[in-house]
């Protein structure tokens, strides 16, 4: 992902902008990442500070083990990277000139309904 580094703070709007442009240009990447936040957030907003890091791994006992940075910084899981890309791609398929607010609506809708929003 161009211009976005793991373990660095970004506003959600910045992450959306970069990843949506990448998805629009190159399609679904299926990249191994998740979005994490400092607080247990259930609503996406443009100014929400997020960090990207690897997905948690699953032990033989079915326990999730989060990346060291996530644990050290006491971050909370916010969004799975594959679902995040899926939502952005879906919004782009429906609205070629989608705004950041459109993406935010789509992300929140998906979190609430586990399905894509119709625009």
Average pLDDT confidence is 93
Q: Share of helix among residues? A: 40-55%
The ordered H/E elements are EHEEEEHEHH
SS content category: alpha+beta
Number of strands: 6
Poorly predicted sequence stretches spanning 5 or more consecutive residues? none
Task: Compute the number of helices.
Answer: 4
Strand content: 15-25%
- In total, how many domains does the architecture comprise? 1
Task: Summarize the main sheet.
Answer: 4 strands, antiparallel
Cα gyration radius (Å): 14 Å
Shape: globular
Q: Kindly report how far apart the N and C termini lie.
A: 27 Å
User: Main sheet: which strands, in order across?
Assistant: 1-3-2-6
Characteristic terms for this protein:
globular, alpha+beta, 40% helix, four-stranded antiparallel sheet, 119 residues, single chain
Architecture overview:
This protein is an alpha+beta fold and 119 residues long. The strands form two sheets. It has a four-stranded antiparallel beta sheet. The radius of gyration is 14 Å and the shape is globular. It has one domain. The mean pLDDT is 93.
In short:
This is DUF7716 domain-containing protein. This protein is α+β, with helices and mostly antiparallel strands and 119 residues long.
Outline the secondary-structure elements.
Layout lengths: L9 E2 H15 L7 E4 L11 E5 L3 E2 L5 E2 L2 H5 L3 E5 H14 L5 H14 L6
Antiparallel strand pairs: 1-3, 2-3, 2-6, 4-5
InterPro entries: DUF7716 (IPR056133)
Pfam families: DUF7716
Protein name: DUF7716 domain-containing protein
């Amino acid at each position: 992902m161009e211009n976005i580094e793991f373990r660095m703070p970004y506003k959600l709007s910045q992450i959306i902008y970069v990843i949506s442009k990448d998805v629009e240009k190159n399609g679904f990447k299926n990249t191994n990442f998740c979005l994490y936040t400092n607080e247990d957030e259930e609503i996406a907003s443009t100014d929400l500070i997020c960090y990207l890091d690897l997905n948690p791994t699953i032990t033989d006992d079915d326990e999730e083990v989060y990346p060291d940075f996530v644990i050290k910084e006491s971050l909370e899981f916010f969004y799975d990277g594959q679902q995040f890309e899926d939502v952005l791609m879906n919004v782009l398929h429906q609205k070629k000139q989608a705004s950041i607010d459109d993406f935010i609506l789509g992300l929140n809708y998906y979190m609430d309904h586990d399905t894509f929003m119709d625009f």
